[in-house]
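Handout, section B. The chain below has 506 residues.
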Amino acid sequence: MLGSRIREWGPLDWCVAVVIVLALVAGGIYGGSKLLRRCDNGLSEIDGQCIGVTTESFEADDDIGSLLDAIADENHRVASESGTPYVRIALMTAFTSGDRSAMTSDMIRRALAGSLAALQEANAGAGGPQVQLMLAPIGQQLDQWRPVVEKLDTLADDKDHPLVGVTGIPSSQTDTRRALEELSASKIPTVGPVINASSMNFDYFFKTSPDDKQFANALRHYLDTYPQGRKKGLLLLDRHTGDVYSKDLTDTLENRFGKDYGLTTNPSLFTGSSGSDEGEPGIFFDAVGKICNQGTDTVFFAGRDQDLPGFIDALSDEGSCTHGKPLRILKTGIGLEPTLTRPEVERDLKKANATIVDAASFDPRWEKAGSTDRPAGVDDFLDRFNTLKTAHTLGAKPLADGYAASYYDGLRLLTEAMKRTFADMNKDSDSEQLPTRQELYTTLSQSTVNSSGMLQGATGTYGFAAQDTHNRWSTCKPVPVVEFPPRRHDRKLSLYRTYDNNDCPG
């Protein structure tokens, strides 16, 4: 064998070798490119996450990949249509989730689905420029906002395709407050689709959701309509120091209900699952003990929805509990988060003889035609959303938490205002001019209450009052109150609407 003659390669051998090498090189380039392109096209990797501003898809949570691809495809289509003017709007939010992140993976993908529905609707309609939706990830804790805001400010100065606004901002906390201060200093109109903390007020920040004070008014309306028990209350609040939402809601609940329900002298604190504070999340021993020993009939929950099932489970496990029955657990939020209506939670609620009472921005019952107080604009939203629901995996009860409908409204507020601004600017002009951030801000700052400028959105028909009124919180916004499990009542609860001076449309 050692002495045998080695066969020389012929032409066929060399061809095969070249093909194999090229295949390996191509595979290596592709695989390496995929790794290298993880955070490119305007993005940089910071702490293992893609941060920045882009019109392209990128690596994020696994279950939002198809939605990011669909947005990128729409952006490519807009840019490829020669001669068609377009502007840009940024979706500034979290695109990754974790055990203690600001948004759950379900919230992220439903927010993206609602935004995509609004983008498709804006670009399908005649008149006005097309829209690119720029994706602006700021990290799962929403703390990597500085390079993003700096880039957005630069993009707003683009003469050809200016960035005219921002939507997203999914949580009221210290970092998002600072980000909004900078966005306002840069004079970029920004919309908060799911912001509820009443202290989140900045000159260029418009909120399409109700604030905690308006939610509390809706709960007061509910309690006055359906009085029950001896008004023995307990305030259950998240101890996180950086959570502006929980702090503002705690202050509001104490102011609205403290005296009548004895809240100021009887709170119970827990460590929530969102945030980075020390402490074991989901410990409710103190709260359950107080509820059972003091005959509590009304719990006022000042925390995040994802922590509520743990409390309900702890309450149901207390077999000798003698709370005021039935117990009502009052909360506020965008919708009724699907984890709150799972069979095991419903079982625990029935075992504890308790009901969730949620003052919300979206009522899941509105999905059904003919439902009570159903907004006029919900059908246009559902036409788009139901198509996306077929094409993408959006999870169980994808409308229930209200995120899809709210993010749809947030982007639509900007696109509708942009098209009105464009039409006004060019009605007497021979050459078309694109609106800028300042011109869009001027349009948004005009009163639209009871006018053609009111938004017919998925979460209601509403507008904004004059520039310095109500701190740019939406006016005439419906605030439905949803019970789970639903209870029987001898009369209908009338719909509360924000800042209603008997001038809101029917």
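Note. Confidence is low (pLDDT under 50) at residues 1-8, 14-37. Compare this with the example in section A.
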